[in-house]
Amino acid sequence: MPVSDVLAFSDVAFRYPDEPSPVLEDVSLKLHVGDKWLVKGPSGCGKSTLFYLLNGLYPDACDGELTGTRILFGKPYEQYRPGEISQVIATVFQDPDSQFCMPTVEEELAFTLENQSVPRGQMEEQITRTLEETGLTAFRHRVIQTLSGGEKQRVATACALIMKPKIVLLDEPLAHLDPMTAREYVQWFSALQQRHEWTVLVIDHQAELWRDFFDHVIELGEHVPISETKRTTPSSSKPVGSGLFKARVNVPGILNTAELQLESGTITVLAGPNGAGKSTLLKAVAGLIPSAEREVYTQSIGYVPQSPEFLFMTSSVRQEVALGGGIRTETYIDKLLLGAVAASNPFAVSQGQKRRTALAAMLNDARSVLLLDEPTAGQDAYALEELEDALFQVVTDGAALLVVTHDMNFASRIADALLLIRDGDMSGPFVPRSVFSNPALLEKYRLVASEGGSIDVNMAAPVESFY
Amino acid sequence: MSTWLHRLNPSIKMLVTFVFIFALAFYFDPWTPLLMFGAVLVVQVLFSRIDWKRWLMLMLPFALGAVGYFWTTYVFGTAEDRLDTALSLSFRVFAFSSLSLLFVLTTSPMTFIMSLMQQLKLSPKLAYSLLVGYQFLPVLKEEFIQIRQVQQLRRPQHNQTTWSRLRSLPTVAIPLLAGAVRKAEKTAFAMEARGFTGSRERTYFHEVTWHRFDFYFAALLTLIFSLCLVVGAFL
Question: Which spans are transmembrane here (chain B) (predicted)?
């Protein structure tokens, strides 16, 4: 093996102990200094497993069955002592909240150094240097829980960098960031990458946010062909619950008075930077914030939180859909493609299926206004496509949808109208196309123009007549 | 007023407090525990800054227990000296609880766990689990509130009785626990990926040390305890 290889996998296959077939097969990789790899593939194809095999947590952490050879700097993985590999390979995980174990930024950075038994006298200097290099000095004594999503993601990255790694693995670092924050993170990270010449692997479903950062791509799993989604025009019969839904809400100190108008049969997208009050607005409209002033003109409002399983109270998808006493259980199970999992426990199905179960349950309760909080975070292209189908089904039935998302490609594909929010001030509705072609407006709300997500002409047309 | 008690080494503070709670159990006159209770209060007033309202709230259940002891022993007792026994039992409850509260209210949980690991050789695996669990608490509380809210949205109940809230607890607990288990697994992976092995060979950014003050604390309590004994014996 040439010495220039940083890491080499040959014919690596991995099987989880309780599953019949391997999740990864025939993986051969050669990584060189400064390589930048994008890891692609649908959910469940083994992207995270690959990361755990790279950073040495597997097979020990799960007793899986591993074949093939893994070599890091000319030495097989098995010959490294526990904890030694993680000094060379740093990993930043998807959900920044669950990777912190200390209260403040400084202590969190120190945790990495403590694990490496760095003498206490050197910690101060290393922490200061890392904070300066990453531009986080001002956050040194901040409590991590009080930081914004983007700041947390940078702190998590800094915690990995302080160990002076050679290889950096990022698992969906942008999943919870608004588009502009995501772009800024990419710039910040690529500057650091250039200076240190790390070998980088990134799992990301929104590769376009990285622009031309990557020079290699790994595709894992079978490529699932994505069917063209077409929005079916509403049937001529009058859809249920047609009309205009109006609401006025105000949450003192967080959200200034916002007036909403949602037309039944349409999808409205609410966008804006992290911490602007998007989730608060949805919760306030749904009546979940006791201190909010709220005027709504219907009580049949459904709400699907970012973690749809928060809603679940029964032990099967079917019971979950039927819980509210609705009579169209089977109809909605079919419509939202839940037939195959109708008897499964709602906690055990995929994230996309959970969300569709929640949607079906809300619809079956005859809730004609549906509010969805961040349904796109961490969803692969296939799941997004299914979600889009589901949402189009729902509006065809005459429901009014309000969707919060950071994914502007998704927004441009589904939105009939766009609401923008910033620092608790909501404005709009806007025609989506006009927003995406208005750089000043995008800048103000920390959004980026959609790319690649071609706007269906048939879809955009009714909007203009609407307003 | 100083904050001396807050700055003591938590492990030593805990051990000393335990020793005196244990020692107190061997004296059965009513006066020793009563004096001890008073003395501990004086020490706490002089050397700590605590929220006395909170102290009172925490003391309340102990006080009820003490009254219970007194009542049972005095009213249902038959022996000649049952008043002494009853008083002794209830004063003991006060003395024990005041000593425990002295420890609890002047110790930060973080420093306590750090100290357990550094002075009493608690395994880092266990210690860091506790630390992470402690960080999780506010998040879990927030999720609990959120789950209860969204579930109420699905099953509107017009009269929110305490009973209906209690009955809904299991359905709230399931998503909460499912989330917590997943989160714990993620955190464990993240910690391991950052080089945490659970081995004792690690350095500490926050070194929890002990000084001569910690011995002053032991000495002070010994002095107080002896005085209480002597005075108690005369009374």
Answer: 55-74, 94-116, 215-234
Give how many domains chain B has, as a whole number: 2
B98/B214 same-domain check: yes
Phi/psi of residue A29, nearest 5 degrees: -145, 145
Indicate which of A101, A118, A291 best probes the interface with B, i.e. most B CBs within 10 Å of its own CB. A101
Residue B185 lies in a domain: yes
Contact list in B for residue A87 (CB cut-off 8 A) is 195
For residues A11 and B37, what is the distance between their CA atoms, to the nearest angstrom? 72
What strands, in cross-sheet order, belong to the sheet with A167-171? A89-92, A167-171, A199-203, A36-40, A216-219
Predicted confidence at residue A442, as pLDDT, reads 86
Shortest Cα–Cα distance, A143 to chain B (Å)? 11
Q: What is the 3-state secondary structure (H, E, C) of chain B?
A: CCCHHHHCCHHHHHHHHHHHHHHHCCCCCCHHHHHHHHHHHHHHHHHCCCCHHHHHHHHHHHHHHHHHHHHHHHHHCCCCCHHHHHHHHHHHHHHHHHHHHHHHHCCCHHHHHHHHHHCCCCCHHHHHHHHHHHHHHHHHHHHHHHHHHHHHHHCCCCCCCHHHHHHCHHHHHHHHHHHHHHHHHHHHHHHHHCCCCCCCCCCCCCCCCCCHHHHHHHHHHHHHHHHHHHHHHHC
CB atoms B193 and A57 under 8 Å: yes
Residues of chain A with C-beta less than 8 angstroms from the C-beta of B207: 120
Q: What domain range includes position B137?
A: 124-193
Residues near B119 by beta carbon (within 8 Å), at least 6 away in sequence:
B9, B11, B12, B208, B210
For chain A, list the domains and their CATH numbers: 5-219 (3.40.50.300), 244-300+368-466 (3.40.50.300)
Instruction: From chain A, pick out residues whose CB is under 8 angstroms from the CB of B135.
Output: 100-103, 145
Q: A-chain residues within 8 Å CB-CB of B143?
A: 310
Of the candidates A314, A421, A298, the one whose C-alpha atom is nearest the C-alpha of residue A360 is A314
Instruction: DSSP letter for A225, please.
Output: P
Residues A102, B135: C-beta atoms closer than 8 Å: yes
CA distance B109 to B131: 8
Same domain for B12 and B109, yes or no, is yes
Instruction: List b or e across A249-264, with b for residues whose CB sees 16 or more CB atoms inside 10 angstroms.
Output: bbbeebbeebebebbb
Phi/psi for A289 (5° steps) reads -110, 105
B187 within some domain: yes
pLDDT, position A44: 72
Amino acid at A375: P
Do residues A43 and A95 make contact, with C-beta atoms less than 8 angstroms apart? no
The H-or-E segment that residue A456 falls in is none
ipTM of the complex in this document: 0.83
What does pLDDT average to over chain B?
88
Span B106-161, pLDDT tens digits: 999 989 999 999 999 999 999 999 999 988 888 899 899 889 888 888 876 655 67
Rounded CA-CA distance A368/A384 in Å is 22
On whether both B21 and B93 belong to a single domain, the answer is yes
In this structure, are B186 and B100 located in the same domain?
no
* B201 inside domain: no
Is residue B39 domain-shared with residue B101, that is, in the same domain? yes
- Same-domain status, B49 and B139: no
In a domain, B22, yes or no: yes
CB neighbourhood size of B85 (10 A): 18
B99 and B48 within one domain: yes
Interface size, chain A vs chain B, as Cβ–Cβ contacts under 8 Å: 135
pLDDT in tens, A270-312: 998 887 888 889 989 988 888 888 888 877 888 998 888 898 9
Partner-chain residue, chosen from B132, B139, B153, that has the shortest CB–CB distance to A286: B153
Shortest CA distance from B151: residue in chain A:
A311
Q: Chain B partners of A102 at a C-beta cutoff of 8 Å?
A: 131, 135
Do B88 and B151 have their domain in common? no
